Amino acid sequence: MFPNEGQAPGSFAGQVWRKLKITLEMIKVEHSVFALPFALTGAMLAADGWPAWRQVFWIVVAMVGARSAAMTFNRIADREFDAKNPRTEKRALPAGHLTLRFAGAFTVVSVALLVLAASELNPLAFKLSPVALALLLLYSYTKRFTLLSHIVLGMCLGLSPVAAWIALRGDVSWAVIILGVAVTLWVAGFDIIYACQDVVFDHSMDLHSVPKKFGITAALYASAALHLLMLALLVMVARMSGLGWIALGGLVPVAALLAYEHLLVKPSDLSRVNAAFFTINGYISILFFLTWAAAILVR
Question: Could you tell me the pLDDT band of residue 276, with boundaries at 50, 70 and 90?
Fold first, then answer.
């Protein structure tokens, strides 16, 4: 057991606890909320109701392990860029609050959690876990050579409902694949908004993004287009899955929140990007899950 924060700071356990807290803050572990509701939706579609609690437990473990590994590895891979970017220079690794060795060990443990969870779910999930890991870790390097990094990040989260379906059924369906594509577009859309903050830095470092390539105004239009297509795909999934008016009705406030997200950010004013990126999208994922879970339970 880790000690309380009041333990002598020089003790080994106290140092580990402090570094763990810094790591969890660095990767914003609370933002697992973005993908977890979609994973649980995929699981509920597969189970045609609420899955067994054992399955839910291992899906949650897999999701937390996957995101923790991906985010920590991203901070490791980008540490030199983060040190040069005024927006990110105070992150734990460039600021020296966390050692590279500890971050690497945390990544390995997170990978092990994902693989363990996959093995506990079913053989196909276990066999496919290296493929998921490859995509999760590849993302950290994509901005160096392609503006499609936004789509790759979206795919990392878009895997969540598909992986949850595979974990329960050992196969895949078109409905959950389309759901995964919708999640991909949603994440890519809000990542484009987030990337607008770093246009000047991306130019200076020769990094690639949609805002850098086409400008902030065009990037915001592209983000809105991706979110409109996301909503169309979700309507398609709801109809294919026979979810009825509850699921379709739930998309109305989701669409309203997306619209509000785009109203918050303007080419001439990026001061509210964090509110658009973190707060609004957290509400979207939770609202989506609550309405679609209800639709699945009553269909």
Answer: low
